[in-house]
What we know:
Layout: E1 8-12, E2 18-22, H1 32-52, H2 58-74, H3 83-89, H4 92-105, E3 111-114, E4 121-125, E5 128-135, H5 141-153, E6 163-169, H6 177-184, E7 186-193, E8 201-203
Parallel strand pairs: 5-6, 6-7
Antiparallel strand pairs: 1-2, 3-4, 4-5, 7-8
Amino acid sequence: MSWSDREFVDVERTNGGLRSGIVIGRVNDTDLAGRIWNFVCNVREFKDAVNRGGLDNEAVRQKIAEWDEFREEASGRRKGRRRAEIDYVSYHGDVVKALRDYREGKACKGERVVNSLLVDLMVKVDDTMTEIYEVKTDCGRQSLYTAIGQLMAHSVGMGTGIVRTLVMPEGDLPHGLAPCFAELGIALRRFRLTAAPNRKVVLL
């Protein structure tokens, strides 16, 4: 889980209880087979990385420690997600990957495009963060408030030149938030999901 870009979520069951896991997709979705194949390929990539010894280093051990700490903190504030949210939640990792591929394609000499447990994506030059991205899979007010806090908190001390970007689905912003993003210097990048059955992420 610490290796992948997939979001570990609590899903509300029909009996009202919660079940934690990786959301792949809804059973009755027309693109479910493609979602399962995407997940299987992700697992294969992880196993290949293990076999190459790519996870046997201090950076990975630190990321695992951060993951364990994050899950411990989250255990006291669990809430479920209803089926209306699941369609986009299952694509969180795909959005991060599309964003990473895009940014790596235009990286300048010395720039590294990386992520961590707490930051969806960032650009670094040496050890200095120059860009930070937060991906949200809905346009709800609470989700956007959270994104603002994450972007600001995880870029403290990086100076005035850092570029902060919130990546979110296309759609209307809650009233009053557009001037808030402008004043805080947070750029917006939108994405959409194409139609099933060959659904994919398109950055706008």
